[in-house]
Amino acid sequence: MSALPLSTAQLPGTGGAIKSQAADFVVEELPLYEPGGSGEHVYLKIEREGLSTRDLVVALGRLFHLPSRAIGTAGMKDKHARATQSFSLHLHQGEPAGIAERVQGELGVRVLSAARHANKLRMGHLLGNRFRVLLRGAGPDALERGRAIADALSARGLPNAFGPQRFGAQGDNAERALALFREPRRGWSAELLLSAWQSARFHEWLARRLELGCLPALLDGDIAKRHDGPIFDVEHAAAEEPRRVAREIVPTGPLYGAQMRWAKGPALALEQELLATSGIDAAALARAGLPGTRRAAWIYPAGIALEAQPEGLWVGFELPKGSYATVVLREFTKSEVLSAD
Fold it and tell me: Among the options 24, 55, 78, 141, which is catalytic?
């Protein structure tokens, strides 16, 4: 993250730290759809603190004697947060209300709703996330400064970078992944390391495009993403500029993998150069089992709201799925070290 310039670098920051307490960082999933009321899967909307998404998947599996593949989630949520997200359990029998009561009583979480649905909840089955975060210890003029930053972010957006949590507690997950290209392994921990390697390369691509003055602008040959999801080839950037300015489309960058859709023309040259510089080739990507994909390069936080309190500044906003609140919050604090820890 430190290699990427701030979108609001010219504005003074608010200061403050996040996650002094779990209740300081509130995140709520915005669902893609509501459960239909019938089917083999039970959807539980759960509010919890001090448990990661994976922790809760494991606990639910033990409670109902289910393998992890029988439990679905739409995304991952921070452990040190008050998080609300949905889980699906492949349970043929049992009333949702009774299942919810058991989960709430035995796992120490709040179940906000329970209903049946026909399909498993899968990664990406959400519109985005709503955040409300306390910048504890923000300066006395934090509200005024925060308003200027909020206005700038609403007007221009910011790079869709990954948060520091993507790279592990020591920040070295991307480097640790290199061994997996030589001696491939499978499993959750391997996927975590390889995703960090992809993220680091995406950050390099973001930094180069920003350096060239080509973000959020499009290049000929880019692959753009529509706000409703589909991606498409950009043959002539100038022709697509009105849609980009209207925020209907954004450029995408590479999450390298053997099946990734490559850009073309001038945009392709940069993607190929960065992969070659990494020392990893297409054969290594295939051996490691990385399919690859594209990621939106630019985001526009929605509904930014600020509230000054004696303990600091509350910042609320919505982000599309896959985007990191910490990337937005560093624009406010102007600090790479966000956490009070």
Answer: 78
